[in-house]
Design goal:
Elements lengths: L7 E4 L12 H13 L4 E6 L2 H8 L4 H5 L3 E6 L6 H11 L3 E6 L16 E5 L11 H14 L3 E5 L5 H4 L2 E2 L2 E2 L14 H12 L2
Parallel strand pairs: 1-2, 2-3, 3-4, 4-5, 5-6
Antiparallel strand pairs: 7-8
Helix pairs in contact: 2-4
Length: 199
């Protein structure tokens, strides 16, 4: 709320907002702040798609309907990742996205209806499992066919800085298009801070 310049904020980038140890009340408080400071764009990513889907259809309906809050699931493989897409789609958020990172196998053909953005990347660091170009190209082609923005983050590997992020000689930096909300006045931001302090 104090930030007057619009930003893209990755909420819980090093954890999971929908972890079982995080209470529903706490998640609701986070959503109240995101709804209040609507001049920013928020990205929430989880592997716990079942809980997120349930809450977006009940307690978090307002946050699900807000186009400045993007809800995503991790899709690393067919067995665990693909079922999360259906759970996300079931919640029908205004902006649903997939983080296909690390991509660990060929996902094959999958349904992109209701999905507004797809990020793809390879695993990085010591012991990183390899990624195949054909797996990435398949997803890119499916995104193109469905009209879904495609973002290729990295090839990864033990030295991701050397492998880069170009695919077939091109960098893919596509994002979903949403209407930017105006920043509210300093006075209004101060009153929002007071309101949030009482939550």
């Amino acid at each position: 709320i104090r930030w007057s310049t619009p930003r893209r904020i990755f909420v819980n980038s090093m954890s999971d907002l929908f972890h079982e140890d995080v209470s529903d009340d706490y998640i609701e408080k986070v959503c109240r702040v995101m709804l209040a400071a609507n001049w920013h764009t928020y990205q929430i990513l989880t592997k716990r798609a079942d809980r997120m889907s349930r809450l977006l259809r009940t307690k978090l309906k307002r946050a699900a309907a807000a186009s400045h809050i993007w809800w995503g699931v991790s899709v690393e493989n067919q067995k665990h990742g693909l079922p999360r897409i259906d759970l996300l789609r079931k919640a029908k958020p205004a902006v649903a996205f997939l983080s296909v990172e690390p991509l660990l196998e060929d996902l094959g053909e999958f349904d992109l209806s209701g999905i507004r953005w797809v990020i793809v990347g390879g695993e990085s660091g010591a012991g990183a499992r390899p990624i195949e170009g054909e797996w990435v190209r398949s997803i890119r082609e499916q995104c193109t066919a469905a009209g879904v923005p495609f973002f290729f983050k990295q090839w990864g590997g033990t030295r991701k800085s050397t492998t880069g992020r170009t695919l077939d000689g091109q960098t893919y930096d596509e994002f979903p298009q949403i209407e930017q909300q105006p920043v509210v006045s300093a006075q209004r931001r101060a009153s929002l801070l007071e309101e949030m302090a009482g939550c």
